[in-house]
Structure formats: C-alpha cells, structure tokens
Amino acid sequence: MESAGMKIVIDDRPVEVEEGTTILQAAKQAGLHIPHLCFHPAFVPEGSCRICLVEIEGLPKLELACATAVRDGMKISTQSPRVREARRGVLEFLMADHPLDCPICDKAGECKLQDYYQEYGLFEGAFKEAKEKRDKIIKIAEKLILDRERCILCTRCVRFLSEITKTQELGVFRRGIHSEISTYEDAPVQNNYSGNLVDLCPVGAITDTEFRFKTRTWFLEKSESICPLCSRGCNIYVDYHPGFARIPGTAKIYRIRARENLEVNGRWICDFGRYGFPSLEKDRGDKILWKKEGRDTIMSWEKILSLLAEKLRPRHRAKNTSNIAVVANTWMTNEELFLLKKIFMDDLGLKKIFFADPKPGPEDGFLLLTERSPNARGAKEMGLELDSVSLEGLSQNTDILIIFGSFLADLHDPSSLKNVLDKIRTKVLVSSHRSGLESYVDFILPASGILEKTGSLTNRDGLVQKFSAVCPPCGDSRPEWSVLIELAKELRINAGYYSRLIQPEVILKEMGKEIAFFR
Amino acid sequence: MIAGLSSELKKKIAEVVARYPKKEAAILPVLHLIQRETGAIGADEERWVAGLLEIRPIKVREVVTFYTMYHQKPVGRYHIQVCSNLTCSLMGGEKVIDHFQKRLGIKIGETTRDQRFTLSEVECLGACEQAPCMMINFDYYGDLTPEKIDGLLKGLD
Amino acid sequence: MACSKAWTRHVDEKILTEHFGLANLYEIEAYLERGGYRAVTKALQEMTPAGIMDEVKKAGLRGRGGAGFPAGMKWSFVPKTSDKPKYLCVNADEGEPGTFKDRYILTHNPHLLIEGIIIASFSVGIHAAYVYIRGEYEAVAQRLEQALAQAAQKGYLGKDILETGFDLDVFVHRGAGAYICGEETALLESLEGKRGYPRLKPPFPATVGLFQCPTVINNVETLANIPVIIQKGAPWFLDKGLAKDGGTRIFGVSGPVVRPGIYELPVGTSLREIIYTHAGGLKPGKKLKAVIPGGMSAPILKADEIDIKMDFDSLAGVGSMLGSAAVIVIDEATPILDVLKKVAKFYAHESCGQCTPCRIGTSWIHKIIKRMSAGHGEKGDVDELVRLASNIKGKTLCPMGEAASLPVLSLAQKFKNELESCLKDGSG
Question: Is this structure's pTM higher than 0.90?
Fold first, then answer.
C-alpha cells in the first residue's frame, strides 16, 4: 500500500503526517500540546519566543517545533529533561521581565504565561535585580490599551496589522531589552479588526477598554454562537456571566470573541460585530402588553395568543385573509421564517410577506458585508421574496397587521408610521427591542434576542449554521418560533403538524424534508 | 527644514536609491545623507523618507531607533564618541571619558550648553590597535592621552 | 584615517599584506604596476566558473569573519540555475571587539578585495555585489568607493568585463551601528532596509538570501585570499599554513603589548609567538594574565594556555575559537571583573531583542555584574551567571546566543576564585 505520509514518533507516539507538516502541527495531530507564544497559525513561523524547542534524536541542538518540518523517521521528544530545562529557562527569562500584575490583569485565567508557568514552571523566582520600568497605560486605539511591562514581544500584534489588515499601525522601536511595541506619533490603531489584537495577545499586554476591570474570566461561561450583525455569519464565542445568585442584575454578556471557522470568517471577527453586541442587550422588551384605551395591561402568553387567535380565526374560516399583513425581517432564524411562511402563507393564504430590515451599511473589503442582517439568504432559499414594505400598500385594505422586529421604525419617520398604523384596526408588534413603534400598536409581544434563541441561520454564501442559546430569555420574552407554534395551535390549523415541532432542531429536520436546500 | 534639501542632495539620494532593486533597501544610506544635512531624523524627516521609499513612516522610525548612528534629536557640533569596550578600557579608556567629562563639564549622553559638544559612550570602533580611541563626528582619533585630548579640543571651533 | 601600527610579518611569501608598505597601493595604477588584476584576468579568460570553485574548495579556504565556514562549499550551495538574480554580500561590518584587520585591507589594499569579489562573482554567476561596511568606517567606505570607480574605469567592473561577456556591479552599503548586522542573515535584513533581525535558518542564504534570491555572504579577508589562490593554486595556498587549514591569517593584536597592530602569519602560528615575537610581548612592567584569542566572543585563555596553534581546529579543541583572529591581551593589573563587565555590557547593548533568551538573558547577566562591580555581589552570583549563560547558549535564534554566553562561561569558570573573592559572604 502506498503511503504518501511520513511516519514519525513523538514522545513514543507514532504519527503519520503529510510532507511539509511542522513538528508543532504533527504534535497537535497526535493530541500533544507543545507550548508556543510567538507562533500563530495565521502567520509564518517567527521563531523568536523559543519556548517551543524540542529534542530531535540525532541532532545536537534543540530545534523549534513551530518552524521545523518533519522528516520521515524523525523521533521527537517534547518532554525530555533537556526540553523541560530549555522551556523552564525561557519561562524564567520571561518572568524576570514581567510584572506581577495577575491580581489586576484582565488576562488572568486565560493567560498563556500563567498557563505555561503552571504546567512547565513552578519555580521560585531568582531574579534579584531591578526590573525594567515601562509605560503601562498607553492608549493605542479607541478601545485598546497597551501595557509595555507585560509585553513579551511576541510581535503577534505587529504581524497581524502588517499581514492581515495591512495597515501597519504598530511597530517595534529601539533594540535589545529596550525594544518596545509602539504606534507612530498620534496615529492610533484604527481599522475594523483592532479588537482581534486582544484575543491575539497571549498575555495581558493589550487589553480591551470595554472589558477592562469588569469581571474575571473564570466567572464567564464560554458559548459558541454566530454573529448576527451582517450576513457573513462569523463564528463567535460569547462569554456570559450567569450572575451571582444573591446580587441582582449581574447576569450579562461581557464580550464576544472570534471563533475559528476557516470556511466562513477564518480566525477573526470585525469590530462592528465584536463591539456591536451591547446594542443587542439594550432597550429590551420584556413584558407582554395589551394597550387598550390608553392603558397598558400586562398579559400572559396564553391570554394574548388567545386574543390574537380570536382576531385571526374568523378570517381563516371565511378564507378571506386578504386584509391581513405581516412584516417580517431577516434577523429571524431559518426555523422562524419557515414557520411564518407555513402559517401565514400556506395555511392562512396570505399572498406575500413583507420585510423590514436594517439599512445596509458599507462593506469593509474583508469580512463585513453591506447586508446588515444574518438570514436574508435563508429567507430566499425558502421561497420568500424580500419585498420591502410600502406604507402606501399597507394603509390600503389592511385590517390586521403583525410586525416582527422594530426595523420599521428605522426606515420611516414617526409621523408617516403613525398615519398608516392609525388606519389599521389591529396592530401586533413582536419584537425583542423597544422602539417608537410601541406607541402605534395594540399588542406588544416581547421576542427573545438572538443570543437567547436556538436555531440556525443561512449566511450569504449559503452555509446553514446552527447555534444554541447563550443565556436565558430576557424577562417574559419568547423566541418567535415558539410564539408562532403556539399561535398555530391556538388557531387549530394543522394541529398534528405543529404540535410535533417542539424544538428548533426538529423544525430544521422538517424543513429538510420539504425544501431541498435545507437537507 | 526637510523642504529645503538642496537639489544636489536630492540628486545624490536618487542615485543611491537606484542602486537597489527595491527602494526601501536604500533607507540606511538615505538616512545617513539626510542626517548629515538636517542634523537629526525627526518626524518630518521620517515622513519625507517614507514618501521617497514608498513605505510607512512607522517603518522608518523602526529603523532609526534600531541603529545607534541615527539620532532623533540633534547632537552638538562635535559628537565625541569614546569607545568604552574591552581593549580601550584596558588601555585607559575610562580615564579618557573622565577627562572629557571634566573638561567639557558634561556627563555621558549630555551636550554642552553652547551646543558645541555632545559626549557619548560607544562600543568597539574597530581601531583597537590605537586604543584608547574615539570618533569625533566621523573622524577617528587613537592613542589618546589627556594632553592629546586637550590639544584636539583647542583646535576645534 | 590613521593606520599607524606595524603590519610586519614573517612569512616568506606575503598574501594579503604584500605591498602594504606602498603609500598608494589603493590607487589602481600602483596596484596594477605590482601585478594587480592578473588574477581576475586569469580567472575570467583562462578558467571556468566551475574550475574556480573547485580550486577554492581544494584550497580549503575557511571564512575569516568568525564562523570559519569553507568558502568554496558555501559558494557551491547556490543553485547552478535560478530564474532569480544572484547576489554577493561582502561582510565588512567588522564589529567583533578586538577586530580591525578588514579595515586595513579596505584602507591599504581595496583592489585586492575587488579582485576577490570579481572572481567569486564570476564563479557563482553573480552580477551584483554589495559591500556592507560598518557605518563608522566612513573614510574607509569612501576609499573603497574610489577604488571601485577606478576599477570600473579600467573595465574590471561594469558590462562585458575583459570582453568575456561577464557583467558585474559592486555597490558600497554603509551600516549604521549594530554589531548584530555582522551576522549574515541580519546583514541581509539590514541591506533590505529593515531592522537587523537575524532570520530563521533554513532556508539558508544560498537559496533564499538578499531579496529572497540566492546569495553568498563572505568576509572581506576571505575574499581577499581568492586572487592568490587563483594565481598560485590551491596546493601553494595549503602549504602556507602550519595546520590542516591553509593560507595565512591577519592576526590583530591589541591590549598592553609593545607593538599592537596586524600581523599576517601562517594559519597555525602559535599564540605565544604572535604575542611575544611579533607584537613584542607585554609592555614593560606588565605581566600576562589572560588572552582572548579570536575576538571578544571567543572563550578566554589563561596565561599558561597560550602555547596553542592559532587555527580553527586547535582552538576548538581547547574549548575556544579562532573567530576573527583578534588577539586581546590582558595583563595582571586588570581585574577579571572589569573584563566581565565590558563583555556583559557589550552583548546587552548589541542584542537585537528579537528572541527571549538573548534579549532578557544578556540584560539580566549585565545587571548582576553591575551589582557585583558596585560591591554588592552576593554568594552564588557567579554560579548564577553560569546558569543564565547556559540558558542562553544553544537556545537562541542566531549565533549571538553563543557569542553572549561563551565568554561569560569561560570567564566564570576559569577565574571563578578571583570573581568569587569580590562577593559578600565570599572569601573577600
């Protein structure tokens, strides 16, 4: 049998790898971790931190795992006494030039220096001399602070700005022990990917002002999700603090970080997405309200859905639903749009569903796209045409209007909206966010925010990406898919069908049966 | 300042840049030429060189701050660079430094009030057979003694 | 600039310093009168590039910059065919403390170097050469530029040299004060207009060098030996040495000796002879304490260790190195702590800062020694120096790690008692 691979042994483990694989990559394949600081898979090996040195049988000097390509028959040790000593030596040098900032450093808990010291160090410091004093609070970007005492000069930040964004805002000045990372004069790091520098920095030398001193990493639950702020569908980590039991208001999302997906966003996310998530949490609607005769009555889901069903049922029975209008948006998940279409178009006979989405914005030539919603492609693949709302069209002959999302408030001025909506007898707003629309509608149903939902989204390139809720729903809110299914059940349309669809995964499977794209 | 470069100098610079297949490779000789003219490489000079070599100003500063012969601030009319390395030290280099400090009334790294002299310590100059030695601007002087130093200083305006 | 000291030597047939007595040897007319450029003529008109390379390989010419890598072998690593241009970089950075020999060659006999450059380029297929000369050697660079202009005028450089169809341009490139740029890959980075950060090897400069093209980097003295190898042949050259390696070395002697200066002597001459016979021994009233045989980066030898042949193998055999053949003589009146202080200060100052062990280790070592010099040395400090130097040695990105650690190790080990006597809680 012909084998194109090379057979090597790492720590007595046989591994077969392709030509060109480095020792570091081969070790990863074998499930072994070799410590590294300056190496990052997005860049060409740098070889300057020296912590990844390993022993190769037959070679007199220790060699870099990150930069040495394996050869057939190589025997490598990542744990021999010589290797341990070399690693310890590098760690000791780094610690000798590193401040004891852990108690006040944001990176604690996810710091490579801490991790490696714990794993490979645990020695008593022997440095008796005066440590180099350097500037510690240097604002290098609107949201980034550089601490030169903590910097280990791995130059990942410099290389990121040189090779990825090609904006070169950072450089290394001076020489030897006095080497320092710096911006040029007053020119800050200013591009749509600056936030990645925080993730990239192995220690706490570059910190995020949005996160600085806010919490501790070990309180955070790391969940996987998808960024909804444009149609790229970048994979993200959401770090959520579940809250301290006895202190109200401490449960919140603290930050978003990039999650690697070489098919979608590579290893990065843009700042628009990274710093956009606080807007997802602001102005949340959390109560079910019935506005009647100038008074807001708080209701339960059962009551409000029953009321809504009451309004819709006669039209359904009379097979005359021409004066029902639905405005949806492409922030809704595949499952939600599927249910929407099924219920309103297939079952209730609406001819079309209108869409109101965020206004498009500028693309940045890399990840950020003009389409500022995550699921336009999903809507299209289901056969929904993204007809935008014309207020003229709405005002004619509409009796019942159901609006999903508050984007309508961004697209039209308040007086025009008021004019149109005043002419419609029953108006329902299903939205995660509060807005001016609330003053013109009768029923307000709080929808869960996208990070509180489970479901799937189809990105611009047609990739269906599943995600799970990162945190519990805000207040009384519920995801739209759940609201729609309950509504369908209240209306008693196709009862057997809708009552089976208990979870988004089940809905997606059902979609696969009916629509080839979602198979 | 940088705008007032003579056409002769600009011609020389262009000549130097043409010696390399990539413009940015000319940065070391160009910086030498500019510094000769303007006395120091400040932000204006960095931006001018960056424009000439089609690189960003930050790359110019990275180079300026790496090499010891480039100054970001002007030095005195006479830059006295005394070797403080091994052989010169074996041959009395410390005494040379002390003598200069006494004569000029300044310490290493400082410039006299009248801007005439800057005193620096440098590493091996490659003239160890004449230790202790020094450079004044670009001229070498070796076999230094306090008397010889006094004589030299007298001859400088 | 003054090159005032003696360059007398006692080899019957001089190689490099022949005619140094002439005041104007650097003028091409004088050089031609003395048989100059005959080697170039022979090489280009009577020999083949492969034949030249063979001869240089047979002569066993080892690099005279410090590392001692065989020149012919280095040239042979350049791929014979390449769609990229090939370059020659002449390393005239001469930063190793104690070394000044290349300055003499460049000042007195630049045409000898130019001949070597032309022959080497012809052999490897190079059409552009850069002489990287340290920034401080401004007058020297001017002398070289002048000599290059004269050579071009006479048709030895430029297009269609000696009507052989061979083109070659040689440019002078001045450095700006960085010892690390004497390391060949840092030299390339500096030539390309960047900070002098050494590169990872592999790939080696022979395949990926200047501007990513195949490149040969040779020291000034190495190339200056090429013309005589061509003229007189490899066996003659080998015969001149007293060791396995052939030819002569320009030994530089400095420190408290009667006649500091350069001495061209056969490879393998004894260190004792160099110091006492040629350089006249220690100055009156001074006694020998120690010798650094090959530039500051070479491990030190004690006064009773100077009966050693000055060639690569002999010195390597006793744990030192020939390096740049720069002999630094240290006398009894000099405390070893002072020597250690200068050594540590130099490497800390010259560390480029790219890799962890050198950047931080050299600074740490320097700080300990400064503390010791200020009278605050503590028990265990010397052992600590050895430990730290051992953590640098073999772990760095470039040979600067060895340069920074070996001298500290040899001083700490050979003069342990003297150093420890300076420590508190020690014996002093």
Answer: yes
